[in-house]
Every structure is written in structure tokens, then in C-alpha cells.
Amino acid sequence: MIRPLFSLGGLAVASVLLALSLGSVNVGAPDLWQVIQGQGSALNSTLILDLRLPRTLAAFATGGLLAVAGALMQVLLRNPLADPYVLGLSGGAAVGALLAMLAGLGTLLVSGSAFAGAMLATMLVFGIAHGTGSWTPSRLLLTGVVVAAGWGAVITLMLAITPSYKLPGMLYWLMGDVSYARTPWPAMAVLVLALLLTMPVARNLNVLARGPLQAAALGVSVRPLEWTIYLFASLLTATAVTTAGSIGFVGLIVPHMLRLVLGNDQRIILPASALAGGTLLVLADTLARTVIAPEQLPVGVITALLGVPMFLYLLHRSR
């Protein structure tokens, strides 16, 4: 049980060191070690500690948040191909962020508006799906898809009426770009807190994954647990979107691949998803920074290029 987590932890550390070393200006291992010890040159220290390290940690936290949210959504909807964006959270966050950009607000207010939009989307989807009675996974999923389509139409309208000089920043945000992250620490704190709060109920998640009737028969409070999962997944996704914009496929691919390798024990899947998702996004961001250096690509483009063929493979395999 512990060995896969140690292996993934080692890969995570290696990916972070690789991200700190590579870029438009490469830093060798000896110079990197000197900076870690606090003995490097002022130029290397500024490059690594002030520029690359915050971006790398933000990428790791965002990837971990999306992967854990994906793992929770797949348990909630009992669908191995569920995605944290499937309920329209990214659309609500995008509308909030784009409104703030249109108003000329600062980066902090843009992030706050994105988070508020994601939470609004959460309440909207849950309120419509719940109605006057109860909700089922299929009803929640269908409501989320319809609401996401509505957000997409609003985003298209906003881009159509936006002055041309504001479009590049908006489009980069919509494609996902870690360079807009102000600080990695709020996202990292939410990730750690989410793991600490979800690990105690991992056994109940294992039972819930078998179906609500079996879970209820075994003494699990199904409805409160489902509400908790939904709110946690929404909070994690909103934090990730607020940090780095809309980055797709991480929350879909990572937990599904881990289940194929490690099984379906949530006590392993949840921390493994955090490590593997963070590692994947760090490597994708490193590739985005270096493939056409000194120019940079949005990291969402890299994850989409990697995620689309992987999703098609998983879909074919599940058939």
C-alpha cells in the first residue's frame, strides 16, 4: 500500500527538480544544488526561487487538486470516465474571470471572481438537479452538462464583444496558463487540507463506489456522504481553476489510470492522485515552457494534446 506512494513521491520530486532546471535558460545540477543550499549566484537564485519555484509549485498544486477532484467525482457519479469539469464549474469560473478582465480589475480580483463564479455554478447545478425531491448521479450529470453548455454560450458572447486588445489574456486564461498564478500556497493548502479531511472517509468511499443500496445496507450515511463529496470536489475544482485557468483532462486521465494499476481502494487512490496529478501538470508545464523557448505555450494545450488520445484509448478499452 505504501510502496506505490513512495514511488509516486519520488517521481514528484524528480519532476519538480527537472522543472527548476529547464527553461529558456537551463541551470545545471551543480548550480541548482548550490541554490538549494543558499550558496548560488544572485542570478540563479532569482531565476529559480523567485520565478520557477512558485510556478512549479502552483502547477503541482493545480494538478493535484484536479486529480483528487476527478477521483471524487468518479466515486460520486459511479462513472470511471467522469471529469471534475463535467458539472460546469470551469464555465462558471471562466465567466467570473472574464467579467473581471473586462472591467479591468487586478489579478487578485480576477482570481476572486473566478472562484465566485465556480461556486455560483456549483449552487446552480446542485439546486436545479435537486429540485423539490432528491437527485441521482444521472440527473446531476445531465444538469451539469446543460449548465456547462449555457456557460459556454455566455463565454462565446463575451469574447465576441470584447475589445481586441483584451482578447489574448482572456484566451490564455481559458486555455489554462500557470504563469497567471500569483502564489502557490493557497492551492497547496487546500490540497493538503482536502487529503486530511477525505482520508478518514476513504473506507466509506470504497463502499459507496459499489452503489448506494449496498452502502446503505452496510451502515453508510449515503446522502450526507454524497453531499460532502460533491462540495469537496467543487471546492477543489474551483481552487484549481482560480489558480491556473481551465486545464482539462488531468482530473479524467490520472485517477482512471491509477485505478487500472493500483485498484479501486480510495485510501491509495486519493493520495496517489494528488502526487500523480501534480507530477503530470509539472511535466506538462515544463514542456510548455521549453518546447518553443523563449516563447511559451498555455499548459492547457499540452494536457489536451496528451489527454485526447489517452481518453480515446480508455474509451475503446472500456468498450
UniProtKB/TrEMBL annotation:
Homology family: Belongs to the binding-protein-dependent transport system permease family. FecCD subfamily.
Keyword vocabulary terms for this entry: Cell membrane, Membrane, Transmembrane, Transmembrane helix, Transport
One protein family per Pfam: FecCD
Membrane protein topology class: Multi-pass membrane protein
UniProt cross-references to InterPro entries, sorted A to Z: ABC_BtuC-like, ABC_transptr_permease_BtuC
Predominant subcellular localization, coarse grouping: membrane
Localization terms from the record: Cell membrane
Transmembrane segment boundaries: 57-77, 84-102, 108-128, 140-165, 185-206, 227-254, 297-315
PANTHER family reported for this sequence: ABC TRANSPORTER PERMEASE PROTEIN MJ0876-RELATED (PTHR30472:SF25), FERRIC ENTEROBACTIN TRANSPORT SYSTEM PERMEASE PROTEIN (PTHR30472)
The name this protein goes by in its record: FecCD family ABC transporter permease
